[in-house]
Amino acid sequence: MIIYLDNSATTKPCDACNNAINEMLTENWGNPSSLHALGVNAMKSVIEARGIIADSLGADKEEIIFTSGGTEANNLAVFGAVKARRRLGKRIITTAIEHESVLKPMAELEKEGFEVIYLQPDEFGRIDEKALKEAITKDTILVSVMYVNNEVGSVMPVKNIAKAIKRANSPALFHIDCVQAYGKLPINAKKLGADLITVSAHKVHGPKGVGALYVNKASNLTSQNFPRTFGGEQEKRLRPGTEASPLIAGFGAAVRDFCNNSFIGELNAYTRKRLGEIDGVKFNSDEDALPYIINIYVPTFMRSQTIIQELCANYGVYVSSGSACSKGKKSHVLTAMKLSDEILDKSIRISFSRYSTEKDADILVDALRDLIQKHPI
Predict the structure, then answer these.
(1) Which of 129, 124, 166, 134 is nearest to 145 (CA)?
(2) Which residues pair with 97 in a beta bridge?
(3) CA 306 – CA 327 distance, rounded (Å)
(4) Lower CB count within 10 Å: N or C terminus of the chain?
(5) Torsion of the alpha carbons at 221, 225, 230 and 236, rounded to the nearest 10
(6) Which residues does the annotation mark as catalytic?
(7) Is residue 90 exposed (0-12), middle (13-18) or buried (19+ Cβ within 10 Å)?
(8) CB of 356 closer than 8 Å to CB of 267
(9) CA nearest 65: which of 262, 267, 223, 294?
(10) Any residues with CB less than 8 A from the CB of 22 and at least 6 apart, and which?
(11) In the chain, helix, strand, coil percent, each to 5?
């Protein structure tokens, strides 16, 4: 039996996704750029998926650019925005707890002479809205902030940033990494005032290997100043190359299959209550975090990686210690939150999906209690 509670790393593809991919691989397998019937039919599927994802973001379908995933979309957004605005300033605003697909590009831009302001979180991974607004100046060219932190679930104050950019008379483009928020919080590109939004399929029961970048048509980002790759006419030349039509169709099907997951709040509260019954457990996620994520300190002599392996091998429980992309490195998020080395070394992330249940939470809590009793500090 598998108790899978690592949904912030990836989710189980839904049936609608699997069926769409299978159809594209076995029946509708033409190249979407080909002009014959097979190609035209494949392109129709791509266009349909583009429309579904656009609708989910309150966007127009021509504003959606398909990518290989969230990492590529974030790189496109950061480097493309800076290239488009570099003559207007050198200042970039982000946070110290972004995904590495934002932080690594920022480090590269610092080498090129850009000033990057890394806003620091509090002990629960929250960024102060006032500090964020005050950091925006008239020479700021990019503000890049995630909507939901992928390790502790803290919700970032993104709703009024576009207004703050205007008040500062700044030319900045506004990018939101919505990978963890997509399908969980309402996201409307126009209402948020975002110029760029990143989403990923495999976090919403779609396939791995495909994501999307919303590019506000009013931002005037074009193929002249935006792409990092060259060699084709696809995706408005912003991200050329043959479209991964089976994955795109699967992505669209998964988004169309979005359902009401309001029960997640109750599941979070139930799980927190049960976890609180274990002596020594501490919560790194505050109660106002996205309910899909709970980050906790586990009071045992074992470190996070060993806790994860023990839970998997002996109890069939699957959790993580943070971003899967970090591959076991010490969490930069918990470090930025200024938590102690003891907590840094022994924290795990529990993350839910539409398939999670209270029974899963009970099995997790029982497993943790047994593990702590066998391996106390």
Answers:
(1) 129
(2) none
(3) 13
(4) N
(5) 20
(6) 325
(7) middle
(8) yes
(9) 223
(10) none
(11) 40, 15, 45
Q: How many residues does the chain have?
A: 377
Give DSSP secondary structure letters for 162-220.
HHHHHHTT---EEEEE-TTTTTTS---HHHHT-SEEEEESTTTT--TT-EEEEE-GGG-
Judged by phi (left if over 0) then psi (alpha if -120 to 50, else beta), residue 227 lies in beta
Using one digit for the tens of pLDDT, what is the confidence trace for 136-179? 999 999 999 999 999 999 999 999 999 999 999 999 999 999 99
Record the pTM: 0.95
- The answer to whether residues 367 and 311 touch, using CB atoms and an 8 Å cutoff, is yes
Structure-block tokens of residue 68: 């290989």
How many other C-beta atoms can be found within 10 angstroms of the C-beta atom of residue 35? Answer: 9
Q: What is the pLDDT of residues 290-327, one digit of tens each?
A: 999 999 999 999 999 999 999 999 999 999 986 555 56
Q: Is 68 left (phi over 0), alpha (psi -120 to 50) or beta?
A: alpha
